[in-house]
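Aim 2 progress. For G-protein coupled receptors family 1 profile domain-containing protein, the working sequence is reproduced below.
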Amino acid sequence: MTNASSRIPLDNATLSLFQNAKISIVISVIYMIVTAINLLGNGLSMWLLLFRTSPKTPSIIFMLNLTLTDLALGSALPFQIYYQLKGYHWTLGSNMCSFMTLVFYTNMYCSVLTMMAIGIDRYLGIVRPMMFRQTQKRKSIAVISCFLMWGVVLGVLYPLMTTDLTYDIPELKIITCFDVLKKSMLPSDFAWALFLSGLVFILFFFPFCVTTFCYVSVIRKLAKDSKTVQKKRAIRLAIIVLLVFVICFAPNNILLLIHSILRLFYDKSVYMAYKLSLCFSCLNSCLDPFIYYFASKDFRQKLRAIIRMPSLSSGDSMKMEQKETLFSGQ
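Predicted structure tokens for this construct:
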């Protein structure tokens, strides 16, 4: 994002990015790979979660929510690829630009909040098993939580829905989509500070802290007993979730904050680094099916059956699977 009024000249870093064909091709190739993996992995996940996984526990409901946002991103990325290959020239109109931008950022922040919800559910199931034991009540809470997540994300992103996000750059003969964001989108620097704080702290930093606490607590709880199968699986799940935060979400949100502060107050830019980090943030949609594999016993069994992998059959594994089904919401 480069904050500019309607005709303030763009900074050299942004203009350089728009003229860098190699970077545009690299970003396009990454998006192509992500799109293919996203649609294949999440398409299979959606089918398994909807039609092959029962009962629909809270964790499964959260996974369905996450898969839905991932598939929306996978469906939107081809438009971004087309835009990149056209040399940052958007030809589909301002409404479509706003819609695709909203899909892009909704995926990121709904994914963050949903992974936090999955972590909380596992924390309650393993560390606090006596809380929310009534299955129906937990299902209702999960469904309401999903609606609340969407409400919070769309509330914070509301300025993107009410602004023309296209920007005409006559000197390059291109019209960008969300790559140049007018400072006039919000009425004051204070409003910009609130907007950025909502993105970085409410939708990223706070969920990251809660998720880390939940998984660390789960690992500490399981480390006290000898149930190594569940412990190893919980550790793998925690590692994958935290890697998604650290690799996919953290660089983008940190660079967003740095870049916006530099543009608002110092007329400087780290836009190329931010653009690349935004590209890599999409990798979360490729890693989410691995989260489902380690978080859901039923999903794991159905996937193993499809790809003809042998199921675990030791006595200890069966006992651990039974306990996981009872307490962790699958």
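The chain is about 75% helix and 5% strand. This observation will guide construct design in the next reporting period.
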